[in-house]
What does this fold into?
Amino acid sequence: MLSSEDSAWEVPQALFGPRSAGPTVQRLVLGGHLRRLREQAHITTEQAAGIIRGSHSKISRMEHGRVGFKERDIADLLTMYGVTDADEREALLKLARESNTPGWWQGYADILPHWVEPYFGLEAAASFIRNYELQFVPGLLQTEGYALSLIRLGNAPTEEDVLRRAEARMSRQDILSRETPPRVWAVVDEGALRRPIGGAKVMREQLKHLIDMCDHPAVTLQVLPFRVASHPAMGGPFTILRFSEPDLRDVVYIEQLTSALYLDKPAEVDSYLEVMEQLCLQAEPAARTPQILKDALNGL
It folds into this structure.
């Protein structure tokens, strides 16, 4: 079920090539427009594919925002769909051009897994980010020292790669410094706070940073304590992204060892939203988080 084209984006290889991921949200918005225009014109994906000398699967990937767009293809499809208004055509063609503009993360494309690049674009455009972490501090709340320690546990071939990956992770956090940052609501398992990644010094710095982040107006942090013996998210961490653009569906991001899933089928997203609500109820109230963090700090 998770590998079906309508229910998940599974990104192990070619769906988003290392240098093909431009601004993700622009592609999603344009893809949604193209799908609606095609359906309103009662044209099948096979018929549309013939116009651009492509395949049914290419039209599907375009409509799901999973590939870049050729301006000529968009122009041909708009003509086929009966879009003759000059302003409407130009607006959509402009969106196609913008969708191929490299995102900031493209500067790190040589050292980042290609399947994580689409997430950077989604995260940067999200208005609400809900995150459950089982083993580690969420990326948006990590210190540089903690991030470096985690990355060194991975498979980065050189220290330069480690430093650049950490730099990319820190760059993601710029969204929290915006005039209107996204709302971030994270539930973190207590084990992530007790596991001394990088040693006591690094972990103390990380816990102090989390205490400071509790005062950030856009951040809500809850801790799921050890005493909660079982819960519906024991299978692993996940992130739910919501967007202010009305045409964009919520997306659930699940990172795996060598790939990632991007779920956007409403029924599946609703299941994860329900699990997240249960986690928030089982976790300690956010008002208690600073004290929990101080207790963990004192335990080092």
Remarks:
- The radius of gyration is 21 Å.
